[in-house]
Protein 1
Amino acid sequence: MAGGGYDSDLNLNNVRLLGDFPIEHSLGGHGIADSQETNKYNLTLNPPITHYRIGLTLNVIFSVTNEDSATINVDNQGEIAIKKIIEDVLVDVSKKDIVVGKVYLLVFDGQAFQIVNNYSPGIIAFPISSENSMGLIEIATQTEVNAGTDNQRAVTPQKLAQYVADKVTGLWDDKGILDCSLNPNYPAALKGDAYTVSLAGKVGGAVGTDVQVRDVIYCTANNPGGTELTVGASWNVIQGNLVQATTVLAGVARIATQAEITAGLDDTKFVTPLKLITLLNSKKMRTQIRFQSDSLPDSQVLAAGSADYHFGIIAVGGIPIGSTIRQASLSWEGYIRNLDAANANSFDTGNIAMQRDGGPFSNYLNVTSKLQLGPEQVTFFRYVEDDVKNLATGNGTYLAKFANLSALAGSIAIAGHWTLEIDYETP
């Protein structure tokens, strides 16, 4: 640690009156304060003091600048906070309040060492300026001005002008009118430049953007001017007219009526969410549903047997009441095999029928010429009648049959199942 002494060469310890005076009653000391730890200063006087007394004065030079609130320890008598006065309030010193090389006058008040001459190399105190008192003030840097967060430094006209210049760059700057009737290129411009179209045409050359009277072309980035291809990305076109909107031109349009939306013929008006959901809710839902009979095991039918061979019960359900059958088809998947080794079998006209809920068979489906079996021939793996909606009328039990089997010459074998597909529309 650096050594220190007192402001007078008179040491009361060397004077004997009625008794010895302690060294603390000598005149104030002076010295250089070292720092072995950040913001903690040590000062050594010669001869040393043995305790702090109120009113003790020290003229101190600090060897290290403080980074935060700080303390001083004189002759190992304990760390004492170093304070300053700001607007009549005693507060801790702030970062860099203590700088290297300046002489600070400290006075012990019983609790802390007060800096009498804050920010001054002499013993005259110069206060820091504030909104309520005059004093010293530092000029702000350009960075501090731009940040706008410091309320203790001053702004100069030069730095203020620079700040304002940066802020106004890119604001709207009306450059007058632009005749676009001959499809001119974009003019050279700075960000914020704006031109009002006086005559309609294109801007950015012959393949540029269509513009109308009163439209505004606005520069979004500095550019040297040119065609739509070269500098078009640096410009915006703001519509200033009331032309009809199209797929390529921004403009105005009215809301379509519900009737126009339902008709679906107008391509110049727009649809609102309300009218769209109204249209969708008005549409009937089409649904296709499939029902299948149990599979028919391989069975033999004699020609001399029943005139009609009933099989394939199809249970139909789940169709909402009031629905309209729009389409129905009946299909057979399986085989019919001729068991006669000598004779051909051929069905008569009207050989397939459907019966619903025990009612009479009607509307036979014609399979003439579709089902002709040669001797011992296997055929009829799949057969489809695409429109039997006059027979499929909704929920119920349907029975399919082969009719007029007695007309066959010889016996046949049958195995497979029926499928009924119904396409209906809900109310």
Protein 2
Amino acid sequence: MPSLLIQNGTVLDPSRNLEQRADVLVRDGRIAAIGQNLGDADRTIDATGCYVTPGLIDIHVHFREPGDEEEETIASGSAAAVAGGFTTACCMPNTKPALDNEAQVEFVLRESERVGLANVYPVGAITKGRAGKELAEIGSMHERGAIAISDDGVGVADASVMRKALQYARMFDTVLMQHCEEPTLSGGAMHAGTVSTILGMPAIPAEAEQLMIARDLLLNRTIGCRYHIQHISTAGSVELVRQAKRLGQNVTAEVSPHHLLLTDETCRTFDTHFKMNPPLRTAADVKACIDGVRDGTIDCLATDHAPHLPEEKELEFQYAPFGIIGLECALPLYIKALVEPGHINWMQLIDLMSTRPAKIVQLDKGTLRERADADITIIDPKARWTIDVEQFAGKSRNCPFHGWQVTGRAVATIVSGDVKWNLAHK
């Protein structure tokens, strides 16, 4: 493999709390050295004015393959990932059929290798068919390379099934990712509050999320499984996690860009690009999520990238599917929500988007230490640009941030020492 030298950038490595102006030398797909006067290489990238960071990692994406390849595939999703600066993505199991057995896990890994862009790791289903009734083949999926287990799209409603799942996850030392939504309180189209009442829209209360979190934390109190809460969205949920961490429970949580930047007020437009699950909440919930990021209650940032066809999103608000895409614009949106207002700094941002996600799913990534995989993202923090979905590499266009003016962009994405995306040679 050709060697690579990244020159004149500012290295940010949260795994070592390292911030310095330095060059990075890559040989044989691994970090060879960081410093000055590192010699020559087969290829050189000038990173003047840029941050050189561990490759960004998104532990919550939907690539739709198999079953809905017209919306996204592992190939198109990987292209979207590297265009957004992500070197690694963990894809959810709500495909058709569900990723609930070792053959499906192996398919994702083979297809990711064939495509040769981002590292794509499958998340296996907790239950067969994601039906919430019978545990899937957790052990064999784990052995074949499933990075975690989840029934994302639905929560595991049966407490007995959930208790067994926590025990199995503990046995195999894998992380259980839960979509927290009590089904008897679900079925709505937006957040239950003043806006939904005015619009006469069926709605999902904050308690739907909070009840399942509280139940799972209670179930897991003596089991100690690595329990991860997906796309947290309410103030009450953040406080439940905060209290659980104070008690020493093994719990982590993620938040998505839209739950840091948008509220249910946007639903007054009836634009289905503002329809997602969990739904957009109130300004108080947004503030609580930001506070949760600031104080460490929320452990990482994840997009919940969810592609849909235009004709699906053109349905009436009540009947359109939940979900938006996010991989290609997540970085500047997090900058806008968290860095620009001064809630966190750049080192903390990269920690939340790389080092800590790697720890949650136990990947030996999220670092620029010597001999580590050369998964690297080069970011221009001052690049000003307009989000344009028509320029996205992924298949779908369902993004509520189209037309937003943002600052900060991944200008190069390097996976195992190979430059997969370079904005200068798009």
Protein 3
Amino acid sequence: MSAQPSESDWIVALLLCLILGGVGAHRFYTGKIGTAVAMIFTLGGCGIWVLYDLIMIATEKFEDAEGRLVIKD
């Protein structure tokens, strides 16, 4: 884990996960393209993957593609 926070905005990632989580929009936003595509094909792991990501984002433990935490400013 890097000491620097992600450049991705926390609230944007949270809202994308809430609204378009099933198609991995929050993962596209944070640069995790491969897992975002996988979320499209599995519809967010039938919702389980989306719920997990939502909890991780809300608790500020979600990382972007470079391993930096997506946190509130």
